[in-house]
Design brief:
It is built from no helices and 28 strands. It has a 4-stranded antiparallel sheet with strand order 1-28-27-26, with no helix packed on it. By secondary structure, it is mainly beta. The chain is about 0% helix and about 55% strand. The chain has a domain at about 30-250: Methylamine Dehydrogenase, Chain H.
Length: about 325
């Protein structure tokens, strides 16, 4: 697979917190992406809420898990990709997932039935990362040719493309109410588009190295970037040229970042094998988890912001309790 190599690195000290739950060998190969949502279903007229976690692995599979009784229950193993699953996302209802692969296909999955809904051929350029709009009607994907492609979920048809100033779109984020879409690229550029007007809001070199993770704050005001320069940056969308903060603590490439829905925490995963929880207000680290044995590709909060899941090259999923404020 033509995947940019990742360096090894010593795990940072200070891992005084332990995991709540570990699922070893969750996949038979590296796990590159994870998503977590609250699923609301109404079987037989009674509302049932499930915490749904979806993972994508180099073993070509997508797995669907329920977080039940402080453990992961595997519900479905979804097959069909051929060159490793790079990215997964869950829509706002928690009933549909998307996955992308180096086979240049995007697949939509029914999380209640465990079946494929649609297969989208993204073309000759790989679909690297996928994100649902908050109304679940559209799916956005970053590609190797500097574009953000937008697909209609119902038809699978590509409706439009946004041209970025980046090179190889590695990461995507959708803000609350689908106001903005942001991208991070291999050459360190970030782009933000206002989807209500179709205009570019930010196009700038935020880092000098690849931006592998990107996310919005819940209030749409701030953007967090995770970079191969071992740092995260917090950027004010209205005044992006000077970072609000630069978060240092990882000893190697920062691969993923997520913001809690209550706006109090960020979490990051790194090739130094660590997961760090940051306080949004103080911009300081609150906890460091160092229990993975290989690089951490993806981290996500649950919908309540009380727990975090991490996915790693060690084939394991870890779930953490967020430390109290």
């Amino acid at each position: 697979m033509n995947v940019p190599g990742l360096p090894g690195g010593p795990a940072p000290v200070g891992g005084q917190y332990s995991t709540l739950y570990k699922k070893s060998n969750a996949h038979t190969d590296s796990i590159w992406s994870v998503a977590w949502k609250k699923q609301q279903t109404v079987p037989r007229g009674q509302t049932v809420a499930n915490d749904v976690i979806v993972t994508g692995g180099v073993d070509d599979t997508v797995k669907v898990w329920h977080w039940v009784g402080d453990k992961l229950d595997e519900r479905f193993k979804l097959e069909g990709h051929q060159l490793g699953v790079i990215s997964v996302d869950i829509d706002e209802t928690g009933t549909m997932a998307a996955s992308s692969s180096l086979d240049s296909h995007i697949k939509l999955w029914d999380l209640e039935a465990g079946k494929q809904l649609k297969d989208i051929d993204a073309g000759a350029i790989d679909a690297w990362t996928v994100k649902f709009t908050t109304d679940s009607k559209f799916l956005m994907s970053g590609s190797h040719n500097n574009l953000i492609n937008i697909f209609e979920c119902e038809s699978g048809r590509k409706t439009t493309s946004l041209t970025t100033s980046g090179k190889f779109t590695l990461s995507l984020a959708i803000s609350a109410k689908t106001k903005y879409v942001a991208s991070g690229s291999m050459n360190g550029y970030i782009n933000v588009f206002d989807l209500e007007t179709g205009k570019s809001v930010i196009s700038m070199e935020a880092h000098t190295m690849p931006v592998r993770g990107i996310c919005f704050s819940p209030d749409n005001q701030l953007l967090a970037t995770a970079c191969d320069d071992n740092t995260l940056k917090i950027i004010d969308i209205s005044a992006p040229t000077t970072p609000v903060a630069i978060l240092s603590g990882h000893q190697s490439w920062v691969l993923s970042v997520d913001w809690s829905a209550d706006n109090t925490r960020l979490v990051s995963g790194s090739s130094d094998r660590s997961v760090i929880v940051w306080n949004s207000a103080s911009k300081k680290s609150e906890a460091t988890f160092v229990e993975h044995s290989d690089q951490v590709w993806s981290v996500k909060f649950n919908s309540q912001g009380t727990k975090i899941v991490s996915a790693s090259d060690d084939k394991a999923l870890h779930v953490y309790e967020v430390p109290p404020l």
